[in-house]
Amino acid sequence: MTSPQQVTALLERWSSGNEAALNELIPLVEAELHHLARQYMSRERAGHTLQTTALVNEAYLRLAQVNDVRWQNRAHFFAIAARIMRRIMIEHARKRQQLKRGGGALRITLDEGAIIADERSAELLALDEALEVLTVKYPRKAQVVELRFFGGLTNVEVATVLKVDERTVKRDWEFARAWLHQRINGDAPKVSDNG
Amino acid sequence: MAEREQQVTSIFHSALAREGTERHAFLDGACADDSELRREVEELIRSHESAGSFIASPAYERGAALLERRDETLIGRSLAQYRVISLLGAGGMGDVYLAEDTRLDRRVALKILPTEVARDVERMRRFVREAKAASALNHPNIITIYEIGENDGSQFIATEHIAGKTLRDLLHDAPNSLDAALEIAIQVVSALDVAHQAGIVHRDIKPENVMVRPDGLVKLLDFGIAKLTETPGSSTDTEAPTKAMVNTGAGTVIGTANYMSPEQAKGTPVDTRTDLWSVGVVLYEMIAGCQPFSGETPNEAISLILQKDPPPLARYTREVPAELERIVTKSLAKKREERYQTAKDLLIDLRSLKRKLEVNAEIDRTSPPEPLLSPATIGGQNAGSTAGHGATTGAASARQYVSSAEYVVTGIKQHKRAVVFVVAAILVIGALSVGSYLRTRPSTAPIDSIAVMPFENQNSDADSEYMSDGLTDSIINSLTQVPNLKVIARSSMFRYKGKQSDPLAVAKELGVRAVLTGRLVQRGDNLAINTELIDATNNQQIWGERFERKVSDLMSVQGEIAQEISGKLRLKLSRTDEQQLTKHNTDNPDAYQSYLKGRFYWNKRTYEGLKKSIDYFNQALENDPSYALAYAGLADSWFTMGWYGATPVADAFPRARTAALKAIALDPELSEPHATLAMIKAMHDWDWMGAEYEFKVALQLNPKYPTAHQRYSLFLPILGRFDEALVEARKAQELDPLSLSINENVGDMLRMARRYDEAEQQLLKTIEMDPDFENAHETLSLVYEAKGMPEKYIEQAYKGATPEVRAHVKKIYAQEGQAGLLRYELADMLKDPTASDFQSFYIAGVYALLNDKDKSFEWLNKSVDKHAMKFTYLRDQKFDNLVGDPRYDALLKRVGLK
């Protein structure tokens, strides 16, 4: 059992630049998220949607149990959640694609809100791949996307995690979105005509 | 960021800040003659402008739904007793895994239902009912369900694992021969015949739900699954056809429209004839190699289903008997009234067609030998002679029937077991379901009383004893929640611990109908628990089961066992009763383990034991800070610590109170903390009304909690209500007939009521149960003291003393009489008046007997000062001398008793 002190200490170590702390944190947070999500789902009545923000918040409160909730730590915690969410969603999307079976029967896609449907998973996989490329070229911009899209963080929160100002986050987002959109939906990269 | 990237970024943002010609001009300048840079930036700008809502809303909200799905990580993991081996397939109604039942060493197919389905109680209830009913049909062509269970929030269905292919896969591999197609259809329809007679409609017949074993045996899957997809009222919904399909799925990729009947497509109610339509579609597909109604979209398929007749089979294969064409056409009549009305009718037609083909084949075979390489013997696809083809597979199918018959026999055996498992897991249905199992047994009156023998710990290591004891405890506790069931309480049963008692003798001794025995073996992290429930009237086993679990699953096993037993006892449980039965108050296995250890040590009632119990309860709370029972245990430990004088009451009682209040706050339904709180309110706070209220609450919450009755009996004499005290003491005794302390308490209450002869009898009986039980000797000595029998008094009071001390005391009595004896005792007590907080009270008692009122009041007030007064015994005969003295009234006034 990990104590809140440990989690807090790890969060602090990570936010002050210790990347190894992140690797220790991820499984802890993930286990807690799984646990909470299952608990929620088994308790909630049908028709309720599980709110990720609420979930991550509760996981944070449970794991870090800080009375004076430090804004910084909280933002970092959400950043971890973003990474976990991204991985989980991508794994799931990949699996959905693999399991897509033929058989000639018509398959109907329903209830998109609940689970990622097939075409959605293709989209997600494309995004993930594009994001990988973006990371190589523009690492911080890619991080902004991860935090906002997979982690649901606001610009202010992203700014806290990345230690930049909000304006930079906005600009990064603007650029990254255009870049990713172009990469995924635009024409295939053209061979440059004159050098 | 590299220089180039920096350039791109910066130009991009600056360009965005400008518009129209200004932007153009800016780009001209910024990119100069680097046309690639310019193109890149321009593309990004275009993309920016056309991105719309691209990734605008975070995906993470959908992530939460995935978090609770366990499938990504399931392989290699365990779900209840099932170890997941591999994924067999994925469907709308959950993924199916191959798993190993580690309990019974067999392979099972495990379907994990999507949580959003599983948590819909009403839907699950309908599904379970249907699935169980179908499984109970015990038909060789219907898959056997072993268990419908729940593990850590996931609902799963364990069924027999069929090593075969789905009809879908077979159709994919190669077209079916006519004979094979008929054989499959016959087996499917004969399953439906039985199901329909039982009032069960499958609703989702399609090749995916038909499994074919290598030996040819067909198994129909997923009975009741379609039920899961319905929402109440959907069957009568007449809205757009798609509505019906929307209702068939809470997941993603759902149901195929192509097998739907017109009534399903229209969203009107289904009946047994709906299944026969779908059989028609499947049969058509097997022969033709394509579906009768298939469109590009579901809507297209639906419109075909509703309006078009399929092309005749003859279009696809040459050798289609006219009779088969007729059967298929009749099955696919749009109007139900024109279809086969029963599965039986369809079955008869299919069988007679098959027989006809076989007869033809027989004729062919007895006719002059054909050339060796005739089309028939090559077995080509429907080529040449259909009859010849039928002959070869016909023989094969005769074999199949033998194996089916064998299967019926083993299937029945298996089925019985299956029912047991199903019962274990279905909280919703509970006791109702055992009927079918019990019907095979001679009918007897319901069993209304049970004794749970202490589970044997076969590890013979004391470290794991808390588990066997704890399991016994939990099962006893759970069973006390069953209405109309008399359950012998813990301490009575623990008298048999470690003794090789004959369950029948125990049953007789305790006057119960049934006895549960159990053995527990731990190997590493694994637990094996064997249980057996015996009917004492005929020495027959009512139920026996082996549970193999992880140590961490201990808490679910106790609930399961209790559940099964109550089922076997044919006691109907209400929903709340069931919840009570499986309640463990914590989801944390470590916390539960610690709690069990805490109770184990608390029950030892030694100073060391109490200290340990406190440690364990605290440990449990560390693991689960909202574990109400652990707080209740902590309250009990601290109270007992104080009450026994092991810890100053000023320390112990407030701690007990805090813990009890915490327990109540966490779970207002628990009886235990109220009983503890009541004692504290009385003995420490002198809040007599408050205390009585708490007792009433405790007893209302669990009228079968013996300790609450016992403690209440200790309270009532304070208010002079001796008769009621006796009633409560006897209630506790009824619930826990072998508890030494409770038996002693009955004697004590008889003593307080001054019914000394009866008290003597009761205490002698208690001593007979265990001659070493000191409390009983002590209370008996007080009876003799009150009766004025000093010799007998000495005999009992000094039972535990050395022979020298006893001889000395006797000598004093002989020489100085009773007063001398009292003075001797007093001197002994005064040697250490602080021996315990309660010592003052005992000293006051001796002074009272010596008629030294001053001293007696002095010590009584000291005792009150410390809040360490045994108020129950203030009404003891020995204090009679004080009654009438103004100081006595003042004392009562001081504590609010006057």
The number of E-state strands of chain B comes to 16
Q: Write the H/E string of chain A, N to C.
A: HHHHEHHHH
Q: Give, in spatial order, the strands making up the sheet with the most strands of chain B.
A: 1-2-3-4-6-5
N-to-C terminal Cα separation of chain B, in Å? Answer: 87 Å
Question: Could you walk me through the main structural features you see in this protein, from its secondary elements to its overall organization?
Answer:
- The complex is a heterodimer of chains A (195) and B (898).
- Chain A has 195 residues and is mainly α.
- Chain A has helices at residues 4-15, 19-43, 52-64, 71-99, 118-137, 139-150, 155-162, 166-185; one strand at 108-109.
- The longest helix of chain A has 29 residues, at 71-99.
- Chain B is elongated, with a radius of gyration of 39 Å.
- In chain B, the strands form three sheets. In chain B, strands 1-2-3-4-6-5 form a six-stranded antiparallel beta sheet. In chain B, strands 11, 12, 13, 14, 15 and 16 form a six-stranded mixed beta sheet that branches.
- Chain B contains 39 helices and 16 strands.
- The longest helix of chain B is centred in the middle third of the chain and has 40 residues, at 386-425.
- The interface between A and B is large, with 75 and 75 residues.
- Strand 1 (108-109) of chain A pairs antiparallel with strand 10 of chain B, so a sheet runs across the interface.
Short structural description:
Chain A is mostly helical and 195 residues long.
List keywords for this structure.
heterodimer; A: 195 residues; mainly alpha; 8 helices; 1% strand; globular; disordered C terminus; B: 898 residues; alpha+beta; 6-stranded antiparallel β-sheet; 39 helices; 16 strands; 10% strand; elongated
